[in-house]
Amino acid sequence: MTPTAPSPLSRALDAIVIGAGQAGPSLAARLAQEGGMKVALIEREHLGGTCVNNGCMPTKTLVASARAAHVARQAAHWGVRVEGTVSVDMKAVKARKDAVVNQSVENLTRWLGGIANLRLIRGHARFVGMREVEVNGERLSAPRVFLNVGGRPVLPNWPGLDAVPVLTNTSVMELESLPEHLVVAGGSYIGLEFAQIYRRFGARVTVLEVAERIIAREDPEVSREVQALLEGEGVVFHLGVRDVRASGEAGAIELAFHTAGGDQRVTGTHLLAAVGRRPNTDDLGLEHTGLAADARGLVAVDDELRTPVEGIWALGDVNGRGAFTHTSYNDHEIVAAKLLDGAARSTRERVPAYALFVDPPLARFGASEVELRAAGRPFLVGRLPMARVGRARERGETAGFMKVLVDPQTERLLGAALLGIEADEVVHELLLALHAGLSYRQVQRLVHIHPTVSELLPTLFSTLAPPTQEPAP
Description:
By secondary structure, the protein is an alpha/beta fold. It has 3 domains: 15-151 and 278-349, FAD/NAD(P)-binding domain, CATH 3.50.50.60; 161-275, FAD/NAD(P)-binding domain (3-Layer(bba) Sandwich); 353-461, FAD/NAD-linked reductase, C-terminal dimerisation domain (Enolase-like, domain 1, 2-Layer Sandwich), CATH 3.30.390.30. The protein has helices spanning 24-33, 49-54, 56-73, 90-113, 189-201, 220-232, 325-341, 369-375, 390-395, 423-435, 440-445, 456-461; strands at 15-18, 39-43, 118-122, 126-129, 132-135, 138-141, 145-147, 151-153, 181-185, 204-209, 236-239, 242-249, 252-259, 262-268, 270-273, 277-279, 312-314, 353-356, 362-366, 380-385, 401-406, 413-419. The protein has a 5-stranded parallel beta sheet with strand order 3-2-1-7-17, with helices on one face. Strand 18 (353-356) and strand 19 form a beta hairpin. Helix 1 packs parallel to helix 7. It is globular and about 65 Å long. It starts with 14 loop residues before the first strand and ends in a 12-residue tail after the last helix. The relative contact order is 0.11. Residues 1-9 have low confidence and may be disordered.
């Protein structure tokens, strides 16, 4: 049999971007427009990556629909009568979600198509040399290659799971009918959002979590408050879950497991796996570059996102520097600043921040109280319930609290956990203060507009005091 000759290299390129998530398209566009480079942007599935197609945008669209149903059912709380039973049309909910996603993808496609020097290639790229890739039988080479290949959901390693239907964060959003009983494997950020969404749509929801508390990276009081919030809406939790076995079939999936309370058994109509994600580095042919992903699928980078191999950068989910849309986009800004402007930007400038978009949301940045105690670092803590916020009382949504952690010597913020209405917006005032190196007193002296949620911040800082005891487990 005659061996197939390798395909010839394409015309000269200055850069190859593999993956069109949050970093890839913007970086490719800037290199082409501002840098005058000839750029190939390669995407095998969806322009916009996880965020646009099956992450942030579609899930928050579902959160909005679920909140509308929840408010309608609770309308009497605000003195409003809703006659008859509130029902949810899942086909209409999905259609609305799809419309939001499609509009974003179409806008991105149109924008990229109009950029000179930028070639968009649909297909799976795989390294065949140091900075040489093959896609659709064509070989491309460039002195600069950027990885922005994103990640994918992983499944728990449960006996019997391969014999039952399992939903992921992607496939669950394709449902056009309401699950009678949704069992969620995973009590962390993705799992909790879907748990509340589908409970508000009207499904029974049960959450199984292997840790002794949900969102275990948060302080215990945050975990307790979020769990109480969701339990108040009817979500059932099993914590410390061990030895799970799956059986059954579509519509009757049975999970047998063990907890501190003994042997347990739950039967649901649908099972959603939300136990984590893995970077899409397994099939990139990294071995041809001298790079190797670690056990978690991550590629090592320095503070400027450069890999150990000259001319290759890793951005977004694959570099372990924050698997969020906002950190991925910031990755592109760091790289572009260095290459196009000669600016010395790095991930060291970044304040770790994220949000859990249950309703009301949790906004977090910096260190937690548990982390500060473990490090033996002195700190002051301030805490107030959301019931102290006039805006929260006026809206009848007083769940949650605000908590800040401050360095007693520098008076700079060390971290914060805000759980309550508009917390995901209020947190940016504190993030700006930390980024700018401001003392908490400067925030405290700012005259805030009344009535807003942010106006609680000066009062919150007035409660600062040394911690008195270990946080309860």
